[in-house]
Design goal:
The protein has 85 residues and is α+β, with helices and mostly antiparallel strands. The protein has two helices and four strands, in the order E-E-H-E-H-E.
């Protein structure tokens, strides 16, 4: 697993060593629900592609420009797994 991020107002992608989510319980529940939906959707296409990705902004109808987006990219060819960075 690899984790990347962007500084606010920047398009420069940087690899991160750790990620901190600061949220209330409602926000954590929303993130968990998003991850569960991503797992279900990405599992259905696992044999058809090397990688797929989903955005929180596309899933959450309440998402507003200027708030955070979470992008989950799932690889299916062994790359990016916890065992093989």
């Amino acid at each position: 697993m690899r984790v990347y991020g962007y500084q606010k107002d920047s398009e420069e992608l940087i690899e991160l060593g750790e990620v901190t989510f600061v949220s209330n319980i409602e926000g954590l529940e929303k993130i968990i629900e998003f991850f569960q939906e991503v797992k279900a959707q990405h599992s259905r296409v696992a044999n058809g592609t090397d990688m797929c990705h989903s955005h929180l902004r596309d899933w959450d109808f309440a998402w507003k420009k200027g708030t955070i987006d979470i992008i989950v990219a799932t690889t299916f060819c062994g790359k990016g797994s916890i065992e093989t960075p």
